[in-house]
Structures are given as C-alpha cells and as structure tokens.
Amino acid sequence: MNEISPDLGRLERLEGIGCARKRREDPRFIQGRGTYVDDIHLPGMLFGAMVRSPYAHARIKSIDTTRAKALPGVHAVLTAEDLKPLKLHWMPTLAGDVQAVLADGKVSFQNQEVAFVVAEDRYVAADAAELVEVEYEELPSVVDPFKAMLPDAPVIREDLAGKDVGAHGARRHHNHIFNWQIGDRDRTDRAFDAAAVTVKQDMLYPRVHPCPLETCGAVASYDAVRGDLTVWITSQAPHVVRTVVGLLSTIPESKIRIISPDIGGGFGNKVGVYPGYVTAIVASIVLGRPVKWIESRNENLTTTAFARDYWMTGELAADQDGRIKALRVNVTADHGAFDACADPTKWPAGMFHVCTGSYDIANAHVSVDGVYTNKFPGGVAYRCSFRVTEAVYLIERMIDVLAQKLGLDKAEIRLRNFIAKDKFPYHSALGLDYDSGDYAPALQKVLKAVDYDGLRAEQAAKRADPNAPTLMGIGITTFTEIVGAGPSKNCDILGIGMFDSCEIRVHPDGSAIARMGTISQGQGHQTTYAQIIATEAGIPASVIQVEEGDTSTAPYGLGTYGSRSTPVAGAAVARASHKIREKARKIAAHLLEVSPEDMEFDLDQFRVKGDPARAKSMKEIAWAAYNNVPEGMEMGLEAVDYYDPPNFTFPFGAYLAVVDITKATGEIKVRRFYALDDCGTRINPMIIEGQIHGGLTEGFAVAFGQELPYDEQGNVLGGTLMDYFLPTSMETPHWETDFTVTPSPHHPIGAKGVAESPHVGSIPCFSNAVVDAFAHLGVTHTGMPHNAYRTWQQLRDLNLAG
User: From CA 240, how far away is CA 557, in angstroms rounded?
Assistant: First the structure.
C-alpha cells in the first residue's frame, strides 16, 4: 500500500482552493433548520398588509379607512397623508429617482401601494385591507414605451412637471428619463458607410421577474427607550439598507441594526428598498411594537423589481469574409413608473456597453433611452451584472444574423472575430478594459466534444427530408460577461463606492471567524470563503466560521449581486488572509529566533529557509499571538481589509445547444446542452457545478416561458405561478459542463466569478438554436419566450404546422 505523503495529508486537511468540499450550509437547510424572515417571532408582534390599486393609472379622490380601523384587532391604517409629517411618503431609489412609499394622490401602476394596515395577526390585517375604501378616477394608461414618448401620451410622473433635467441628464419628454450614449458615433457611422455588408435586427428582451423561492419581507422592531431600530429583512445589501433607512428616518446609523438572515434566493430582486420595508419600520416606530410584513407571491411578481424590458435594435457592419468592422445599437428601456434600476450612478444603462462581446470590434456606438410607463418599477440584474444579459443577448443574436446573411458557419464567424489572446488586456471600443481571455480554444473544445460536424451533417439530412417530423436547430454562444462591481471610480450606490470587506479574527486555539460585507442567498459563502482563508492563511477550513448579514457585527460592504462575491469580497478575504499570514511570519520568526525574511510559508506552517525541520504551525503561532509576540507588536491575530478593485473581471464561456422542434405542435425539446465556462481560478468545483446548473435552469426558464405581459389597460397578465413559468426537474434538460482556466491578472487569487455566466450565456444560445432551426427558411429572428404556441404560430406561417 502506498503511503500518503505528509504534505498531501496536510493539504487535504486544509480543504483550500480547488477542493470540492461539501457545503457547510446544507445540513441545516435540508433538515429544515434555516432561519428566514418569516421565521422571526417577537413578543407583541403585529402584522402588516398592503392595500393596492386595481388600476394602472388613476387619481385617488378619497381614502376611507373607517371600516378597516373599526375591525377588532386593527391597530393602524397608514396612508401617504400619515407619512407626510415624517417626510416618508416618498423615498429615494437606487437610480437617483424618487418613488412613492404610499401613493400620493395618484397611482401609476397596477398593484401600487395605497395604504398599510397593521393588525394583531396577518389574517385580520388582510381582512381589514379589504375594508379600506378608495375612490379612484381612472386615467388613460400607457404600457408601450414608444407610445409613452408620443407628444400626447399620458403624463405618468406629475411630480416631475417642469423638470427638464433628471439624475442622468436632460429629459426631452414628460415620460423620458435619460439618454445615455457611449462610443464614437461619427467613426462608427463612417465604418457603416464604407462596409461591404451590413445587417440590422430589432429584438425585444421581454419583461421577466427573478421570482425567488422566498418573497420579500421585513420585521421591524423599534425600542423607544434606547432609540434603537432593529430590522430583519430580505436584503442582498443590508448595509445599503441601513444607510437608506438612516437617510429616511434621521435615526443615526449607529442606532440601526439590519439583519439579513437566511435568504431564499435573491437574483437581484432583493437589492432595493421596497415600500413594505419602510411602512413596517414606520408602523413599529409609531406603535412601539414589532411589525412584520411578508408579501404574497402575486405581490412579489407584480410589484417588486422586474428585469429586462429592453427594446433593442442592433446593427453590424462587416466585410465579405464576415470580419466585423462596427457595431451600432439603439435601445428603448422600459423602466416602469419610477426609475428604480439597480445600476451604478455613472452608467444608467448598467454595463450594457459590454455588448461588443468576445469580438474584436474597432468601432461601436450605443444609445439608450430610459422611459416611464404604467408598469411596476425595477430593472434589476436578474442573475447577471447590470444589463449584461441584454448586452450579451444582442451581440450573440447579431453574430448569427450576420452569419446567416453571409452564408457562413456560425462557429466559423466567431472564430474569425475573436479578440486574440495576445491582445489582452484589451481596451474595447466602448471603453472597457478586458482583463484576460482565451476564446478560440474554449469554443474548439466544445465543438470537438459535441461532434459539431456530425451535428451539422444530421441537420442537413433532416432539412433535405420533407417528411421529417421535426426541425433541428444548433445554437452557439461565445460570450464575455463583466462582473465584480466594482471599482469605485466607476461604480457606486447612492454615492457609496462598491468596495467590499472582510474581517478575520484568529482565536488562540487556531480556529478563526471571518465576517463579511456580503450576504449569501445560496452561493455557498460559508464554504468558499473559508477555503480561500485555508489556502492563503494556512488555517483548516473546518475550523473557520463565516458570518454575514448583520450590520452590527459585519464590516461595511455593498452586498451580494452582480457576481461580485468572489471578484470583490473574495479578494478582500484573500488580502485579509495575507495580512494574517504576514503577522504570523513575524511571530514565527520571533519564536524560532530568526529574521522574518528567513521564514517561508508552507501550507499551514512557517519554516526556516534551508532548515525545514525548524517550523511553527499556524496553530502554534495563533497561541503565541496571545502571549508571546515580538517587542512592540500588538497582541492578537486579526486583520481587516476593504477592497476596492482596480478593474472588473471578465469571465467567459462557450455554449452549444441542440433543439428539436415538432412541426405538428411547436413543442421544443432541448436534446443537448454543453456549457464550458472560464471563471479564472476555481475555488470549489462542486459549488461551481451547482451554480452553473442553477444558472442554466433559469436561462432555460427565460428562453422558453418566462414573461410578464400587460394588456392595454395596464393589467399584469402573468402575476401568478399558474402563468409564470418556473421549470421543475421534469422540464429541465440534462446539462453537460466543462471548463478552461484563464486567471484574472489583477485579482489576488485570479478568480473571476461564475454564478451568473450560465444565465447570461444560455439564453441567447437557446434563442440561436430555435432560430437556427428555421434559418434555411429565411427566418432571422423569433421573439422570446420560445413557447410551444408561439413556435407553432411560426410553423403555421411557414405552412409547416400540422
């Protein structure tokens, strides 16, 4: 029997970077021992319920709360008039706009918050909400962003009357929010004028919703004696919520404690501050008792932040060989009734300017117009960085449109246009600095794995057979994402830079606790952060506790969204670990009576260079840190790091989908999906695999079923899970995954982030596959979602349907 080497045994005990370590979070979750906001029960707690508008646009003529207040068990009914003395009837949004907490004289979207009922239990609160009598005068509504910009369109935001300048520049219409442009328009136009080939395609990325498993909610508890406010809340950014609450309430942040306990999924939906949070806090302050508010599924789907709703026109200019010369993009962005997008202040269209993708495009220009409509507000990054999903969808669809016009293979046209490996770091035509990439080998690996030539041959044979019952489509995407928001020179929320933080405290016995500015919603932070510390500081992951989500104990951080946990907070973990390690080096040198420069780090110990038998383990050093340190050194072994990244990180991937479409019914079956991701250094392969599976499943949902449509009167038509598609294991395809590793040169451990890439890259891959099934019939684009009925209509129009 071969003996395990001592070094290998020590490495395995560390369970550091690269180890497929089981998630520490899972045992309590699978035993039902998680603690979510709705699990919080406090003595004397009251319950809140919202009164909501049935109209998308209406003037409020009167609100009569008499019958509701008379119901036994009701403690209060709040309206905008009650909030005005506190100046809390409006609140700031993350996009620099303001939003009504409770409707102030007018409602601007269906289900807008009108009144807040507080009662002894949630059932009495719900009954009382039905007794609030609101007299409305219905107004014309507009849900089409293009119609909203017509001269005679209804005025949605009367509170902005006379304001020709908004948070992001000039407004040219009463329903206009901003125009944001980037790139060189004149140079791009000249490239189009000189191009041998141009293509143009209109496309809608429809309004969808993250629809996390747990809806939004809060429990607010104000202690009038101490003047302290504690709020348990479903937030992806608890420190930001604390700052917002402080701004709204004038309570000092030092007296506000925000706790984000276990969160049942976020996906961008739980970044912002919602009226229910504010009214629960106000009610607790006014009544002197804890108040809980938990929204229903319908409320979640029809009032909390949506995603997408981007109307895009893409154009490419190229030579006859398919080499791209220029990209031109115009977007109309439907923001709903208030601009509540979660985007950096400087970039009101988020990071949409990553829309040049993985391709070496010398000239580009983008123009985005934000527009108000009578829909609920939002515009969050649903499992992506800010507006990156829309950007990737646009460029990946446009590459296929160009290939189709030129009669080129869709893999070949990508290989011809990739940014070459030796061009990194690469400065894009839209001003982004890509850190690293190696695209061609990734795509070639996928093509070989799936026998791409064989698939195209099979497709050709089916197309030649008029009796074939199915159409076969092959979709490819080779996408680049931008994550790790972000450098404070570019990114902020309400003026606070998007740095993040880590505090590590090593105890005398060698165990450690790490407190973070992020908050997990299923990403496995307790597992992966401990692995980074294990490798970088030499402390076994099994004895490291990771805490997040409590603003009274965690260092200030900007939270978890936009795939920023590993690129930003993970870097803070590594840097704090390095500080621990360097102090440990000096303590080890002191114990061994040598110079610190004579010490070298070896997995979980420091040893003397040239004399490895003389060594001190990190456990021994931790003990010494509390009783025997060099003269002049502080006792203890602790470190804090606030990391402001110098740049974003740019993970990438190459995906391929094969779909079969039944001609008779329009049913689409995903026969095969192969996903190769490059996220730089891989911290935990098992967690990466799980995150990719989750992202691909959500991408499948968006591509084939998710949509929040409206009728002309502004009624939401997809506000329940009877209408809104959430795939189960029965519908979800089998996923094949693969990877390459191209580390980020500026990240302390070379990591880039991965959890959102599969969502970003899979959606255009599915669309490309569906369109490819029809490509030989001259079809260049079909709209999402690609459900069976919509696909059957396409087949019918082509005289192919049964």
Answer: 8
